[in-house]
């Protein structure tokens, strides 16, 4: 190997002709110094004024699009805003019932949410307002505070305001500090398990109101007790049941009917769509008319034959600044973690979902700022915690919303209801509101096929999901989400702590276009010529095999190459011939990032395999006297050895670590590597080569080099220096492909050209090739080298 500017280039493990004789070409030296703290600081603080400007502008996304607002957008926003408003009015009063708050508080939360959110939103589809799950958590927080401080029993709205303010402040702080990534640590089983359990809890709690028996027992008991008591008291159902059951039937039947008619008559699909989304409003309107007809002639409300909503104050009440005292804040503290998680988890999940559906990206941190600001400002208007609603967001999206400004029109609809329809709200049947709630929350339950899909994807996480549902229903909502989060965290730590590293070997592969698969064991028939234009073609990498029925014969221009796969045929065709590395060479791929929970355990797997497959260097075990034998050499006191025994196992020559699937190495991992190097060098009685593949992190390279890995020094000089080179980029051309290469590819057949470039003898010595990675780190590679040692070739 030349240590100057001339380096030996040899075809590596992915080359085409490993049997070819190596050639010498001249390539420039390329030394890459380790990254420094100064480099890190320069990267972090680069363009600081520009970053500050972008940060300030990102706080108000409306600035970036409001000046382009037009009549087309206005039409879409107007339709979507009014439609969502018609749905939001009855839903908000229903959800206020779940939160054990007066119905007008739901209306206040509705108009504040939709109108404030649009100024900070990065999602055009999300509709902010009262939601079922957050309402349920609000009711639990209110009950918790009243239990500790009975003096607040007469003012549950004050408790809800405090919860909204504190949760909003936490969300705002997380967003401003750009810590929204922490929400990614909430796993899907926790979210769906909690949502399903909560939806069942809400539905079970509304059945007594649906049947008119809610006053006969405590509907805030544990869910299973509510179900038992409901079944025991069904015989006491009254006229409310007629309103509730009929309303519930109409809601489900109309949804099915409009969906059927939309498919049956596609021309009128949009008409049927609006008929479906307004079914809640229609049910409330007609049930209210009937309720007024049978109740208005009674002078005493206590003699009404059905339960009605009652008085709803007209207009906004008690608008202004509200002070949260210290006792309330301390009483709410235990409820803040779960309340904040619910507030943010549901909103971010909905925003991301509709962003993917409608082809735009949201900013999670800005969404946290939006929801935090909305809830904090909402306290001035007696609003309780509001977040994104999946059902209303879906409706808003289907209505063709164009911008977040649609929330303004939704807010106007709610304000009109607050000031003009409160007298009508008095006659709304409570049973009909319960039907609206049950109809809405049942869509939040994960259907059976989702559970089955989970089971096929990950049985362990399915058990976590079912456990979250069970605990949410039979214990408490908090226990459900805490259990699922803790269980997923434990499984994650177990997976990280007990990885299964793999030893790799090579397989020869051939690249084919559009092969025909026969019924024989792996035989492939090629029926069409290779097309130079692969735009509409599909590539298959097929392992070359022979069978009793025939073989796959590649065309002369087809490129053969090698890839590295697990030696134990894991996820590989069992009939494939896998070539092990040369004798004394081990290629090891860690199963996880090389960090403190697993580094030592993964290396222990390597050491055991090395001791099993290679012999110890120096004096052999059978040549030791009794006094020279180590204490842990178990066996008879006087062993009988065959004097003619020869250990044919090879000596350890090199260990290759494939870190392409393990992007991070921490201090424990590097120290463990250094310890294993010392152990294996002593075992082999020689300097073993340690190669590292796929390490692109500059900090991982720095850590390894700090422990004398990768460097080109006299003690660890590789027997053969494998340098990976590529074509030099043309001056003034950005990207990996140059104009010269593109022009060359037009003149020659693509596959013949690839074969020629993969042949060492075809490399030109005109200076057009340069190293891909630093030449001063000969033990770092992009791909796994062959490591054919002279002794191993004999």
Automatic annotation (TrEMBL):
Report any Pfam family annotated for this entry. Sulfate_transp
Regions crossing the membrane: 72-93, 105-122, 158-179, 191-211, 241-259, 271-294, 405-427, 433-451, 463-494
Keywords from the named record:
Membrane, Transmembrane, Transmembrane helix
Bias (Basic and acidic residues) occurs at 743-754
Q: Does the keyword Amino-acid biosynthesis apply?
A: no
Q: Which residue stretches, if any, does this entry annotate as coiled coil? A: none
Q: Kindly list the places in or outside the cell where this protein is found, as annotated in its UniProt entry.
A: Membrane
**Which GO terms are recorded in the biological process aspect for this UniProt protein?**
transmembrane transport
Q: Where in the sequence does UniProt note compositional bias of the Polar residues kind?
A: 1-15
InterPro entries on file: SLC26A/SulP_dom (IPR011547), SLC26A/SulP_fam (IPR001902), STAS_dom (IPR002645), STAS_dom_sf (IPR036513)
Classification via NCBIfam families: sulP
Q: What is this protein called?
A: Sul1p
The gene behind this protein is SUL1
